[in-house]
Design a protein that fits this description.
By secondary structure, the protein is α/β, with parallel strands linked by helices. The chain has 16 helices and 14 strands. The protein binds adenosine-5'-diphosphate, acetylphosphate and magnesium ion. The site of acetylphosphate (UVW) has 9 residues, from loops.
Length: 420
């Protein structure tokens, strides 16, 4: 079964085409800077030359059409026709309280994703465009959605409620949902396998540090707390997002700077974080380069980023009354040696014994960066959200096929016999 996975972000679209039974990736790629005249398209068909293009791609529908064209392209393609795609799986960032696991797309599911536009304005509208574009270009192909929020639905009320009047929760569902759940779930399972210990017995702090970043406290394989909140703005300092701040700053800054709600929201989501403090970039690679060249603002941005991350790790160890392993993943977590080193060298009180040499080796691999015998293990586990989405989609399609097969069998015969 060939499954196409689409991860549509606010301004980007990542994709991977899996051949499930064989466990092969036929192609993967991404379209970045959607909405601009200079969108960047990268297509990596397995066993063939990569394609790089800079071209105008103004919306997600065009991006998906372009991806489908490339998948069947005579030179760069990997399929003879899009009819060889059996199902499509999508990442959906916000599933609210309605979705505790992945589901096949139907009218009800689409209605609910649209209802949640307000709570994830940068993400959910893009996902809906992705679903509609597949419907338009590949009518009848089953689609599944895998929610960032689903894994965190196991959080207890004392972790997901905010200390504000309960009417806000009852009437408007104001609560912590948490995001990156597919990734936290995946790396926690992989961490248990790596350690050779049952997940049910482990206390883990997983750190998904990408452009968006969040930590999770995972006990016995279940998320018990996570740093992102009702929206993906709360928690850690990120590339362009502020993370935690005193809520009183919002009305104060609006008054002083004469800002509208849209403007303050844009400031906190798109013009804060590493970008705002460094004045250089939202990209950790450029921050590290600048601080190594002696830039003071870059050094301050890094210090704040690391400090806030370390505080969350400490908080989650307290929340679980212990920790077996700390796991780093996603773009920064997997690639920034300096961030991992700085965090780990300041967690000696927990019993972390950091292995500097191991930290420098094995990029792209699952690995241990604490010393043998360290009381708390530290692991780097590359995330693979696309694979989890493909796996869930495959499972849903198979169980639907079993239901369809069962529905063809005439059980009434047996029933009649037993009654007679
Ligand atoms: N070698 C590296 N060193 C430090 N940071 C890196 C490196 N490679 C990638 N990154 C960081 O990873 C981020 C992207 O992470 P990713 O998980 O792909 O984020 P997202 O899925 O939110 O786009 C980039 O913004 C960049 O800061
Ligand atoms: C939920 C979220 O913040 O996702 P991303 O990191 O892809 O922006
Ligand atoms: Mg991501």
């Amino acid at each position: 079964m060939n499954i196409l996975v689409i991860n549509a972000g606010s301004s980007s679209l990542k994709y991977q085409l899996f051949q499930m039974e064989e466990g092969n990736i036929l192609a993967k790629g991404r379209v970045e800077r959607i909405g601009m005249e200079t969108a960047i398209l990268t297509h990596e068909p397995t066993g063939k030359a990569e394609v790089h293009e800079v071209r105008e791609i103004l919306e997600h529908t065009t991006a998906i059409r372009k991806v489908l064209e490339l998948l069947v392209h005579p030179e760069h393609g990997v399929l003879a026709s899009t009819s060889e795609i059996d199902a499509v799986g999508h990442r959906v960032v916000h599933g609210g309280e309605s979705f505790k696991s992945s589901v096949l797309v139907n009218d009800e599911v689409k209605k609910e994703i649209k209802r949640l536009f307000d709570l994830a304005p940068l993400h959910n509208p893009a996902h809906m465009l992705g679903i509609s574009a597949v419907e338009a270009n590949m009518p009848g192909v089953p689609q599944a959605v895998v929610f960032d929020t689903a894994f965190h639905q196991s959080m207890p009320a004392h972790a997901y409620l905010y200390p504000v009047p309960m009417a806000l929760y009852r009437k408007h569902k104001v609560r912590r949902y948490g995001f990156h759940g597919t990734s936290h779930n995946y790396v926690s399972e992989r961490a248990a396998a790596f350690l050779g210990r049952p997940l049910e017995q482990l206390k883990l702090v997983t750190c998904h540090i990408g452009n968006g970043a969040s930590c999770a406290a995972i006990m016995g394989g279940k998320s018990v707390d996570t740093s992102m909140g009702m929206t993906p703005l709360e928690g850690l300092m990120m590339g362009t997002r502020s993370g935690d701040l005193d809520p009183a700053i919002v009305p104060y800054a609006m008054g002083k700077e004469d800002l509208t709600l849209g403007e303050i929201s844009s400031m906190l989501n798109k013009h804060s974080g590493l970008q705002a403090i460094s004045g250089i970039s939202s990209d950790m690679r450029e921050i590290v380069e600048a601080l190594e060249a002696g830039d003071k603002n870059a050094a301050l941005a890094f210090e704040m980023y690391e400090y806030r991350l370390r505080k969350y790790i400490g908080a989650y160890v307290a929340a679980m009354n212990g920790v077996d392993a700390i796991v780093f993943t996603a773009g920064v977590g997997e690639n920034s040696e300096l961030l991992r080193q700085t965090v780990c060298e300041r967690l000696t009180f927990l019993g972390v014994e950091f292995d500097e040499e191991a930290n420098r080796k094995g990029r792209g691999l699952e690995r241990r960066i604490s010393k043998q015998g360290s009381k708390v293990e530290v692991l780097v586990i590359p995330t693979n959200e696309e694979w989890v989405i493909a796996r869930d989609t495959f499972g849903l399609i198979q169980s639907q096929n079993i239901r369809l097969e069962l529905s063809k069998i005439d059980f009434s015969h047996g029933n009649r016999n037993s009654v007679q």
